[in-house]
Specification:
By secondary structure, the chain is mainly α. Helices cover 72% and strands 0% of the residues. It has 8 helices and no strands. The protein has helices spanning 4-40, 44-66, 69-86, 96-117, 149-167, 171-182, 187-194, 198-216. Helix 4 (96-117) packs across helix 7 (187-194).
Length: 220
């Protein structure tokens, strides 16, 4: 075997892997396209599948935005109701998850406006991330079930500090923190979900993280 043969074999193997991956991506794209067409055609089974596959993600997002289980459940139902009504207008500019998140965020915003008119404070989540290291704030808190009483007391004090800091974070900043740092959306997907520019997403995320760091300095 010549010196070049092992390299040629490796290149061939890598090309085969790329071809296989591309074929799989084409199959997934075809299946997704058919699924979306079924949704747009009003297929009840397809919509039931959408709810089954995506309701958990939508609920988790709404719970982090509202910190209220009942609100999150109610808004999740409203999100899918709106999705059912408007799926015919889905153009595929973003993926289904991003499209559903956009509806969910708008539902949460409407609810915030409704509560604001009734002078109810909005509570905020412990799960936001504070800095460029991408470590969730909640992950800094030890599991109380594994902590001794002294550690549990310290944990509760830290939770109060987090609640205070997050309670002061403006909603626009909290939205991008939740979508980017917790839900794991790309900058482009966050921009699509919130219907703002990528530059605005980055700016709000930077300011939100900076504000959290400032308020939590020395607390965690």
């Amino acid at each position: 075997m010549s010196f070049g043969e092992p390299i040629a074999l490796r290149v061939q193997a890598e090309l085969e892997q790329v071809a296989t991956a591309a074929a799989s991506a084409d199959v997934r794209s075809s299946v997704e396209s058919l699924f979306i067409e079924n949704l747009r055609a009003g297929d009840a089974a397809a919509f039931e599948q959408l709810v089954e596959e995506k309701s958990g993600d939508v609920y988790a997002l709404l719970y982090r935005l509202t910190e209220d289980r009942e609100e999150a459940r109610d808004l999740t139902q409203e999100t899918f109701l709106q999705a059912f009504r408007h799926i015919v207008n889905f153009r595929g500019d973003s993926d289904l998850r991003t499209w559903l998140y956009r509806i969910a965020v708008n539902q949460a915003r409407n609810r915030w406006r409704w509560w604001r008119r009734r002078r109810r404070d909005v509570t905020l989540s412990l799960d936001a991330r504070s800095g460029d290291n991408e470590v969730p704030l909640g992950a800094r808190l030890p599991d109380e079930s594994e902590a001794n009483p002294e550690q549990q007391t310290l944990t509760r004090e830290r939770e109060r500090a987090l609640l205070g800091a997050l309670g002061a974070l403006a909603r626009p900043y909290r939205e991008v923190v939740v979508l980017r740092d917790i839900e794991g959306l790309s900058y482009e997907e966050v921009a699509a979900a919130l219907e703002i520019g990528v530059g605005t997403v980055k700016s709000r995320l930077s300011r939100g993280r900076a504000e959290l760091r400032r308020r939590l300095e020395g607390s965690l």
